[in-house]
Amino acid sequence: MPKNNNAKQMNMIQAINSALDIKMSQDPDVLVFGEDVGYFGGVFRCTAGLQEKHGLHRCFDAPISEGGIVGTAVGMGAFGLRPVVEIQFADYIYPAFDQICSEAARLRYRSNGDFTAPITIRSPMGGGIHGGTSHSQSPEALFTHIAGIKTIIPSNPYDAKGLLLKAIEDNDPVVFFEPKRLYNGPFDGDLNKPVDSWANHELGQVPEGHYTIDFEKARMHKEGSELTILCYGTMVWVAEAAVRETGVSADIVDLRSLMPLDLETIVASVKKTGHCMILHEATRTSGFGAELSALVQEHCFYHLEKPIVRVTGWDTPYPHALEWEYFPGLERVSKSIIQMMEG
Fold it and tell me: Is this model's pTM higher than 0.90 or not?
């Protein structure tokens, strides 16, 4: 992360709010709407103060109709506006799936470039907050399958702001998932430890002004020589803790973007270490880890010393009572690293 003398300590909520405020101030075509995002400032307060500053016509509440929210955004984008909509929880994005995949993703192609959908769809994702089956899902893999959509997942406040600014400026649709367990601090998967915060954390040092981060470049969170761990969102911090606990020297690759994907960084790391582990919180079958595994096998087959290992959520609904058995936490990831390296 580059040094910046104008940086301010922010958590991820504040970083997201700052990105929205900057673009609304810079561009009158940028507007924000969704359920409870106006007067209330969003259920996680990511849009707090925007309605008061930018007006009722630039930041407003929408009915409880995710399909209607995204469909309206598609029309606005085709008209020349640049809407940023919030789906209150990723679990509720499914009613909007047709509008995202059939309309937003294909508008440029269908119109031969006459119309585009410069829309950003923000949504909190993931578990670790006792949200149960309806407030904990990670549906990111569904969107990587649809041509025409970019799928972004930040792991820290610095990346969240830079990636969101980039998303809003993109002329095509971006689905921007925010791991809600990371809103107020990094989480290493150990539920018995006190809650950490972004205060005094290097990645909580966020420039107050405008900057962007390219989607096409992953972030090397930690460098090592024995193992490559591919991960994103909350799993970046679980991986860091597991590597520290096991003493294994590992590259931890924070993908940032699933589509587009920085395959070059992935391949270079796996060829260096000869071992690859993939972490994600979503269900295992057809999760994005399966695509990563296929790509690593295709491009690094002769460099792999052992089979690729995936550590993921289970193929069940996200359980409320058994959340920590489902969540790929520190204990499960550490055990998998030891088994892989010593087995």
Answer: yes
Domains 7-207 and 219-342 share a fold: yes
Is 135 catalytic? The answer is: yes
Q: Which CATH superfamily is domain 7-207 in?
A: Thiamin diphosphate (ThDP)-binding fold, Pyr/PP domains (3.40.50.970)
Q: Which CATH architecture has domain 219-342?
A: 3-Layer(aba) Sandwich (3.40)
Percent of the chain scoring above 90 in pLDDT: 95
**Per-residue model confidence as pLDDT tens digits over 54-63:** 999 999 999 9
DSSP collapsed to 3 states, the chain:
CCCCCCEEECCHHHHHHHHHHHHHHHCCCEEEEECCCCCCCCCCCCCCCHHHHHCCCCEEECCCCHHHHHHHHHHHHHHCCEEEEECCCHHHCHHHHHHHHHHHCCHHHHCCCCCCCCCEEEEEECCCCCCHHHCCCCCHHHHHCCCCCEEECCCCHHHHHHHHHHHHHCCCCEEEEEEHHHCCCCCCCCCCCCCCCCCCCHHHEEECCCCCCCCCCCEEEECCCCEEEEECCCHHHHHHHHHHHHCCCEEEEECCEEECCCHHHHHHHHHHHCCEEEEEEEECCCCHHHHHHHHHHHHHHHHCCCCCEEEEECCCCCCCCCHHHHCCCHHHHHHHHHHHHHC
Of the residues 54, 57, 130, 135, which is catalytic? 135
The residue extents of the domains of the chain are 7-207, 219-342
Tokens 């994702």 locate to 125
Confidence of residue 166 (pLDDT cuts 50, 70, 90): very high
